[in-house]
Amino acid sequence: MTCEATPAQVLTALAKDNDLDVNGKAFAVWMDNNDELAHLRNEFNVPENSSNDVDCLIYFCGNSLGLQPKKAAENVTKVLDNWRMETINSHFKGFLPAALCDEVVQEDMATIVGAKTNEVAIMNALSVNLHLLLISFYQPTPRRHKILIEAKAFPSDHYIAESQIRLHGYDPDQSLLLIKTKEGEDTVCMDDVCDVIEREGDSIALVMLPGVHYFTGQVFDMKRITEVAHRKGCMVGFDLAHAVGNIKLLLHEWQVDFACWCTYKYLNSGAGCIGGAFMHEKHERNSFPKLLGWWGHRMQTRFDMTNDLDLQPGIGGYRISNPPPLLMAPLKSSLDIFKQTTMDKLRKKSFLLTGYLEYLLLENFQTPSNRMLEIITPQMERGCQLSLRFNFPVEKIFEELEKRGVRCDVRKPSVIRIAPTPLYNTFQDVFNFIQILSPLLDNFNNSS
Questions:
Q1: For the stretch 137-151, what's the b/e string if a residue is b when 16 or more beta carbons lie within 10 angstroms of its beta carbon?
Q2: Cα 52 to Cα 381: distance, rounded to the nearest angstrom
Q3: In 114-154, which ranges are continuous DSSP H helix?
């Protein structure tokens, strides 16, 4: 999100205008009472400590697994009922008919990623989709054979790049180009990324980077990277696992060649649920190598059974197998919630919500005399997530937070990721988290 004012400046101005103290609970209450998206929290099964089987006060793990939409169970049951009652006819009749269920959610997904409907497919899982698209978009030659990824890529992306390089008979030691951070820094400098592409671009076949880095929460400048890479003749693809539903995306406008994502983080579809893929319409009639299946055949002639492939143009032609309606059901439940707002409104709240967390962390735990933690996420180039590096054993801190009802996650060796999510988290969640964290860190500080 681009904004001239920092989150802290906006928050302190709001507090001043309403005679409130940013550090006080009354400010968090005021922010929640004036939150135009507050009603969306009621669309989710938010765990509370009043439940006998859930000991969770604050959920800050939407960057890893989104909360369950209340409609998810109902929609899954409707799919099961449709199968039970319509039997074979459930392929084309009833709620989320099996043969068409991916197309039911296609337009809503395209809206979230800033694409045309025909540029998006709902299929497979993230890593599978990356492999399928690299079959087409990574075509190495002796002169242009490198894949550019970040040095600290998510392991699956690293393994995918290595295996695709080997598949084509090349050596990852020669053909895998790694973008590294500057010494002593945690985030990748976008100038450095572009400089490497400018310098090495003639040998780079594919630039494959994240939209948002899983570890640091840094947002990559996808528009700029795509422009620079295309000028050098490189193909460009993005892993949007931590970007989709988190930041505003304009994949079509940015001319991105392809992108893939999961749907169980900020899109709240449930662990291991169906993935999504984008391919720009400029490639819709490409002659690239690709792996084919029945579901890439046009629907109009698919059931003629001629074995003469009538390939659907665009990303739809990359579908291999029929889609699972039981997985589309929870995804539809979440996308229906997204339709009640816009990514601009979600980003506006997220800018302040995560900014409020940052403000309170800096006020309480990063004083000149005692820096108990460090925020390694950039102040402006970020989405929901803050990655916190502690000066104490991180697994012990995580364990104590869990005991106190805070759900977050650890990334070794020293980081805890906190992701206040605008669809269901509140400013009081953030305030209460600080009240829990403060005595906990005091105890660690005193014992050390």
A1: bbebeeebbbbbbbe
A2: 40
A3: 126-137
Residue 445's pLDDT band, with cuts at 50, 70 and 90, is confident
Total Cβ atoms within 10 A of residue 179: 19
Quick check: 343 and 337 in contact, CB under 8 A? Answer: no
Residue with tokens 């509370």: 48
Q: Is 303 exposed, middle or buried (0-12, 13-18, 19+ CB in 10 A)?
A: exposed
- Determine how β-strand 366-367 pairs with β-strand 370-371: antiparallel
The mean pLDDT of 155-171, rounded to a whole number, is 98
Q: Say what the pLDDT of residue 232 is.
A: 98
- For 377-411, the pLDDT digits (tens) are 999 999 999 999 998 889 999 999 999 999 999 99
Q: Hey, is 277 helix, strand or coil?
A: strand
Cβ atoms 253, 224 nearer than 8 A: no
Cis, peptide link before residue 413, omega less than 30° from 0: yes
How far is residue 99's CA from residue 325's CA, in Å, rounded to a whole number?
8
- Would the pTM count as exceeding 0.90? yes
Q: What angle do CA 447, 418, 50 make, to 5 degrees?
A: 85
pLDDT for res 448 = 65
Read off the pLDDT of residues 13-42 as tens digits, 9 standing for 90 and up.
Answer: 999 999 999 999 999 999 999 999 999 999
Euclidean distance between CA atoms 316 and 241, whole angstroms: 20
Closest CA to 439 of 400, 381, 390: 400
Spatial distance between the Cα atoms of 244 and 120, rounded to a whole number of angstroms: 13
Q: How far apart are CA 286 and CA 316, in angstroms?
A: 12
CA-to-CA distance for 136 and 124, rounded, in angstroms? Answer: 17
Beta bridge mates, 417: 387, 409
Closest among 124, 122, 80, 126 to 105, alpha carbons compared: 122
Q: Per this entry, what is the length of the chain?
A: 448
Give pLDDT, residue 1.
Answer: 40
In 262-311, DSSP assigns E strands to 276-279
pLDDT of res. 55: 61
